[in-house]
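Need residues for this backbone.
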């Protein structure tokens, strides 16, 4: 580790490592980059504990385009992230699609409005009525469904740690320094951050600081005298076995089932020979940064009854694994916050993904790198999700939130 770096990134999971990679791989950048990660095992990182999925079915064009880039990047990941002397990283991308179900007039209208946005962006998404839905996925009970939205390509699930480790390995090959330590203070001189102090006692000068610290984003921002409305919100995921699996019964996509989002918000998708499921909690307070105790009752009270009603195949199921992870939850509008602070311009936010960080990581990493190198976006314009709206209290709302 050197005494001074052009860019210091606080947090080395998927967002921080994506920023590091896009900086180091850009031929117009010849600076130095340090990534500070407090837990090199990533045991409790939001990246490691996520459901590892990507979708283009959003209501805002920028979110659709972010995921379209992410999907293309994931498909080409093995070639792009190849490290000399090592096997090409395989993210095992299963393009199973997302299936949103609507059973109220309001939900139906939302799907139709979202579909117009998605199709205008070139997304491969179709709307189905009951007949088409039943034909495609005959195991489902669809009598109450008014409309379904199905992603035919560009959506699915993949290896979460594979994405993170691929970014990290390639960034290191390109000259990025990674250290195991914790940022405990950020120094400022007027409207510029000047460096960081580490828990080990070391001080590092910084030309710019990137906040990529996930659910701890507010703690990092406060060290620089700034605020960001991000807090840890707990989400519990359950893996269950199925006495008679419906996987393979679909008449589309080679028989593979999608990630289905029930009108209630309960979701499930195939996970190897099992299924992965979750639900929006009935009560959703901020939790302690170290609270990873699963909410055990969500499966019995919410998930199982809903899935059993949606499909006879889900009546006889049993949990084989469960864990809780944290959303880095943006309490203003549940959308990512990417961009410079308008006054402290060498402090850059990459926070508040609210459960979408893994899929939005490639585009966010590229965008932050462009801001640092060029002072402006060169590809996707992420201005809409910048920090200015936080200061103004102006939500950038997304209707397709899971």
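Answer:
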């Amino acid at each position: 580790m050197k005494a001074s770096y052009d860019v210091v990134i606080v947090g080395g999971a998927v967002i921080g490592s994506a920023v590091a990679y896009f900086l180091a791989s850009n031929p117009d950048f010849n600076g130095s980059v340090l990534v500070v990660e407090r837990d090199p095992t990533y045991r409790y990182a939001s990246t490691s504990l996520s459901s590892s999925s990507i979708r283009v079915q959003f209501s805002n064009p920028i979110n659709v385009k972010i995921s379209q880039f992410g999907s293309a990047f994931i498909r080409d990941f093995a070639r792009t992230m190849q490290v000399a002397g090592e096997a090409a990283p395989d993210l095992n991308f299963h393009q199973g699609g997302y299936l949103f179900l609507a059973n109220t007039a309001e939900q139906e209208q939302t799907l139709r409005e979202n579909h117009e946005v998605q199709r205008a962006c070139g997304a491969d998404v179709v709307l189905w009525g009951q007949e088409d839905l039943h034909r495609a996925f005959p195991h489902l009970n669809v009598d109450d469904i008014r409309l379904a939205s199905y992603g035919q390509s560009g959506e699915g699930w993949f290896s979460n740690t594979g994405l993170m480790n691929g970014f990290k390995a390639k960034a290191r090959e390109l000259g990025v320094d990674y250290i195991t330590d914790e940022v405990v203070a950020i120094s400022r001189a007027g409207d510029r951050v000047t460096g960081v102090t580490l828990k080990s006692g070391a001080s590092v000068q910084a030309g710019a600081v990137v906040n990529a610290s996930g659910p701890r984003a507010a703690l990092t921002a406060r060290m620089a005298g700034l605020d960001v409305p991000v807090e840890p919100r707990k989400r519990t995921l359950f893996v269950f076995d199925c006495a008679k699996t419906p996987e393979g019964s679909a008449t589309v996509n080679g028989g593979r089932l999608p990630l289905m989002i029930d009108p209630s918000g309960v979701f499930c998708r195939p996970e190897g020979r099992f299924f992965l499921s979750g639900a929006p909690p009935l009560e959703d307070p901020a939790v302690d940064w170290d609270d990873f105790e699963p909410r055990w009752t969500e499966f019995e009270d919410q998930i199982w009854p809903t899935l059993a009603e949606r499909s006879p195949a889900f009546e006889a199921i049993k949990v084989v694994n469960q864990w809780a992870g944290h959303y880095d939850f943006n309490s203003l509008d549940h959308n990512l916050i990417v961009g410079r602070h308008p006054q402290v311009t060498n402090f850059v936010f990459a926070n508040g993904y609210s459960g979408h960080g893994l899929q939005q990581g490639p585009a966010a990493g590229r965008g932050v790198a462009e801001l640092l190198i060029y002072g402006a976006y060169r590809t996707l314009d992420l201005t809409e999700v910048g920090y200015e709206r936080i200061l103004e209290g102006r939500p950038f709302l997304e209707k397709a939130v899971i």
